[in-house]
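Invent a record, attention on tokens:
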Amino acid sequence: MRLRNKKWAQPWLENHTNLVIDQDRAVSLKGNWQGVFEKEQPLQIEIGTGKGQFIIGMAKKYPEINFIGMEIQEAAIAVAGRKADEDEDTLPNLKFIYGDGAGVDTYFAKGEVSKLFLNFSDPWPKKRHESRRLTYKSFLKSYQAVLPEGGEVEFKTDNRGLFEYSLYSFANFGIHFEPTSISLNLHEDDDKMADNVETEYEHKFASQGYPIYKFVGSFK
């Protein structure tokens, strides 16, 4: 869902380039991302970070991991960045990229990222828009290009059609990907909810009684 334009967003982003990195600089950092963080730690990426609830929650919960939230909408990335900047906790392990996540391998080198998160991505339900889905085969190739052997992808959605399509897409990717966990109603699984960090959409839909679908898998 696209947010309304916010007049303060552009000037705010221009004044916070250390936290929210623009697309051109992000490309130049390929292979050298550890240099923008205080500590060299495993790096995990959320593609389509929205207003930032998930990635900020992850950065707070796992200070031993470095996180980057990627987002193409100016209003959304500004909201996420400001939320992180104004959080009561200092988050030296969190950065954002204001740019297109279509080719994640444009920004990251092979093995530079240990895990990718795809949370409540646009389902693009029309067949002619299939190639825009973040679990389409061209996207899977870009994920494989940045993850090491054993690197994980974690996917969550409320959309049953996108969930089924995504399982099929990963399975059709062949022997290069192996699912390790599948949930048809995440919020009814106490064990899997123990470490769950919610997104804005997840909280909204789960509170309305909709099932949340999730799977985790790794590239061989």
